[in-house]
Amino acid sequence: MSPLLHASDRVSDADYHRDGPHGEDVGGDDNFAIRTRLTRVMQGGDLPALSHQLIETITGSDDDTVSTQRLANVVLREYGLALSLVRTANSAHYRRGGRPTESATHAMMVIGLRQVRQLASGLLFFDHFQRRSPELKELMVLSLLTANHARGMALLQGHDAPEAAHLAGMFRNLGEVLMACYYHDDYQRVRSLVQDDGRSEASAMRMVFGFASDDFGLEVAKQWGLPETVADGIRSTDPSPFGAIIAFSHALTSTLYQTDSNSRVGPALDALLASYQGRLRLTRDEVSRVASDALIETREMLQSADGGQSAQSLLDLSAAARRAFGPNFVIPDDGDTPTMLAEPDVTLRERLRSELVDAADPASGATIGTMLTQAMEVILRGGPFDRVLTCFMTGDRTQLVARTGLGPDIEAVLAAFSFPVTQRGGPVVSLTIQRQPIYLPTDRNMLTTEQRWANQQGVSQFGVFPVVVSGKVIGCLYCDRSGSGPAPDRATVRYVTSIVDLVVDGIARRRNG
Q: Does residue 169 sit within a domain?
């Protein structure tokens, strides 16, 4: 093992035993060691970009259309997150009425944007690190299990913020994840001291790094500006009910999946349950259901992340949980996994359209921005298309400008998607002014000018669906594909036209009060 240790980062066993009984700092060297390590981490790599993305996702305004559109793009880009949101929206905690939620953007409204931001931020963190190495993926799977345990426990305990618990659970091991990623050799030495020398993890961390992993995680959470609930989750001594939920969820993950002996996992689980009886209301059967649900949600996320490469690992995790809870512990097989984002079909289109009918009704409480975001998802998934944009005329009607959109690299597309309402405005303007929905080349072959414009945009096909309210053209919905696949059939074009008709109806009804 290549020792990349520095004198300021090392402490002896004697130094370790000078700490207080709960690992609190009494030597005064911890902060210096943490700052030294954190400075090196923040000066290189892509961690600053990740921190910016996380904070932007968490703190985005729920009233800002652009911020909501960005969040919708995050959700729709990650199959596992979208599936998790739809599952959550259909849970007993959120579901209202008899009709299940099919649309991810509708699920965002059902759950609440603040809660969605918390879920999305935790899963962005998961996705960023799970791709780095098998070792980091293992750590991130454990973090995801803790997050899913925490949300399940929060629901079980009647806590009013289950998504905040999910976020805190995901970041509970933040310090260890960063140590494993950015100080790989040192982290391997910690694992060696634990596994080969029999040292406690706290002792090994202090010997190699000079501080506890939780202290490092707390400092990073502070530097990033993460919510206080995340810090509460990292603090193992937080006495609140929320702190107990996160601590128990973390301990449950460790007990089920990191106990070093098959014969010990059952007794270890019993001891864990007994130790929390005074702080949490729970039974063994309830915790078994929480663990089962967590495995299902973790499996769904991993299937979207690696295309099934983690199948054996998930079988091993399921077997470990079954050893702890007994032979009655069962999780559904792959055939029971929902196919919410499968290839579009007529049935899915109709279900999605039916949800949009509700959103178009002003009585639903959905704003025009919310309705448009949901309409873009319905078109995107019902197409298939690569991108969908909503464009409006400016107040003086001199420009046609894209306001929101869904699809890859949408921010760059929106920044450039602005055309003068003149003969030089190009095909999107001219087709919008003609007031008739059209998709090229399904409805007709492209003209030379249209083909030239499509080549400049890097697309192989595109459609323009004018939005005409009370006889006045106010904009259009635009969709395209960049690949070489076949153009959608006429039934698909009629489907998109019907969605735009719903948008027109929704805008008109709101304008008319």
A: no
Mean per-residue pLDDT, 164-192: 92
| Continuous H helices in 262-341 | 262-275, 284-306, 311-325
pTM: 0.69
Joined tokens for residue 187: 């982290």
Regarding predicted confidence, which is higher, 441 or 126? 441
How many residues comprise the chain?
A: 513
pLDDT digits (tens, 9 = 90+) for 336-376: 444 444 444 568 888 889 989 988 999 988 889 889 989 99
Q: Report the SS3 class of residue 340.
A: coil
How many domains, the chain?
Answer: 1
> What does the block give as tokens for 452?
């030239």
Q: Is the residue at 378 inside a domain? A: yes
**Cα 504 to Cα 495: distance, rounded to the nearest angstrom:** 14
8 Å CB contact between 27 and 12: no
* CA dist 124 → 119, 301, 375 (Å): 9, 11, 25
Residue 412 located in a structural domain:
yes
The string of pLDDT tens digits covering residues 250-290 is: 999 999 998 877 778 889 999 999 999 888 988 999 999 99
CATH of the domain at 382: 3.30.450.40
Structural domain boundaries, residue 464? 346-511
Residue 161's SS3 state is coil
Q: Pick 225 or 397 by higher pLDDT.
A: 397
Within 10 A of 399 (CB to CB), how many other CB atoms are there? 17
For the segment 23-39, what is each residue's pLDDT rounded down to a tens digit? 444 345 678 889 888 88
Question: 496 lies in a domain?
Answer: yes
Whether residue 441 is preceded by a cis peptide bond, meaning omega within 30 degrees of 0, is yes
Task: Tell me the backbone φ, ψ of residue 419, rounded to 5 degrees.
Answer: -135, 140
